[in-house]
Amino acid sequence: MKGRPLLPFGIIAIVGIVVMISLSFMGLNQREAMNADEEETEEVTEFEDPVAAGEELTQASCIGCHGGDLGGASGPALTSLEGSYSQEEITDIILNGQGAMPAISNVNDVEADAIAEYLLSISE
């Protein structure tokens, strides 16, 4: 060891690099498995009460821009949509956005339908 004092440090560094690379690949495999599990559980086919589900989803997704009572804030009021928009049009706006409103990415088609049904049910 007298002639090569850096050899133990070099060996430790090489072992450390190999361990880091191995753990990185293991983490990538685990992330893919987790994403696959999430995709399987996100599938919602139908709500028992779409209006009640729509109300909950609206509280989670819409009140930030449209106000707590949906009477308008930075976004327009959502309390008088009946006659102006059909349920399909509202669903399309939720999923794809329109004008200054961005698409709502955290809802699927069934949830967007429930929100649209709820908004039409509260129209004045």
From TrEMBL:
Membrane-spanning intervals of the chain = 6-28
UniProt GO molecular function:
electron transfer activity; heme binding; iron ion binding
GO cellular component terms, semicolon-separated: membrane
**Sequence ranges assigned to domain Cytochrome c in this UniProt record:** 49-123
Q: Which residues form the signal peptide?
A: none
**What keywords are assigned to this protein?**
Electron transport, Heme, Iron, Membrane, Metal-binding, Transmembrane, Transmembrane helix, Transport
Q: Which PROSITE patterns match?
A: CYTC
Gene3D superfamilies registered for this protein in UniProt: Cytochrome c-like domain
Read off the InterPro entries from this record.
Cyt_c-like_dom, Cyt_c-like_dom_sf, Cyt_c_BACSU-c550-type, Cytochro_C550_firm, Cytochrome_c550/c551-like
Recorded protein name is: Cytochrome c550
Q: Which organism is it from?
A: Alkalihalophilus sp. As8PL
